[in-house]
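Table S2 (continued). Query chain:
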Amino acid sequence: MNNITMKLNADELIMMALKEDITSEDITTNSVMPEYKLGEVQLICKQDGIIAGLDVFKRVFELLDASVKFTMSYSDGDSVKNGDVIGTIQGDIRVLLSGERTALNYLQRMSGIATYTHSIVSLLNGSKTKLLDTRKTTPNMRVFEKYAVKVGGGCNHRYNLSDGILLKDNHIGAAGGVKEAVKMAKEYAPFVRKIEVEVENLEMLREALDAGADIVMLDNMSVEMMREAVKMAAGKAETECSGNVTKDNVARLIDIGVDYISSGALTHSAPIMDLSLKNLHAID
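Corresponding output:
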């Protein structure tokens, strides 16, 4: 994340996380370290994966004390292995201790998402299909989690409800049908916005295509039905496959020919990557 993005979108969220962890003071740290003392600690990888979120990790400590210094041997997107020393952090020992958990929470979560995303992207190599995330993110963590997806080689779907038009089953039900929903969206939305329609069968797909949808989301269709849907949509709309897609079942979708595969699992089911701050010591 660049500095502008961090200040505009992340600083307030990071401060909220710090305030959640330190409501008034860090009693444990203040009891054993009542005064300033310069120290250094190592950031160590305990699991193979893709590192993501180093700028967020650093920002946690910087918001506590702008004088903290970092020496990093890796950058976001790099492959790391168990035992690698990612870098060192130097500063007031009280700051290193108080910021440790929050900083690691961000880095472990984001690196886990990048690692999981990378594993699926690797399976799609050689195909035209791009992997997308969804809005199934942890509240107040979306900016971090979607960034981690990109670091892992995936692509971002719309960021939020203001970012794009996606007519799902309940929107279609509210409007009275696919044709009506697309017509109303075209009349309401700026012409620069693409309109995506979720369809569950070939009849709905035909309605969406006839109504002028730009993208059709093939939701929970069988592989055979999706193959037919891709043929029907060719030259008329882009296609997105969705519905409980994970690393374990994505292989069946590779040769269908869809433009996109979206997976909520990238952000809601990725396990964290094990990282640790170790070997804290004072510097004379």
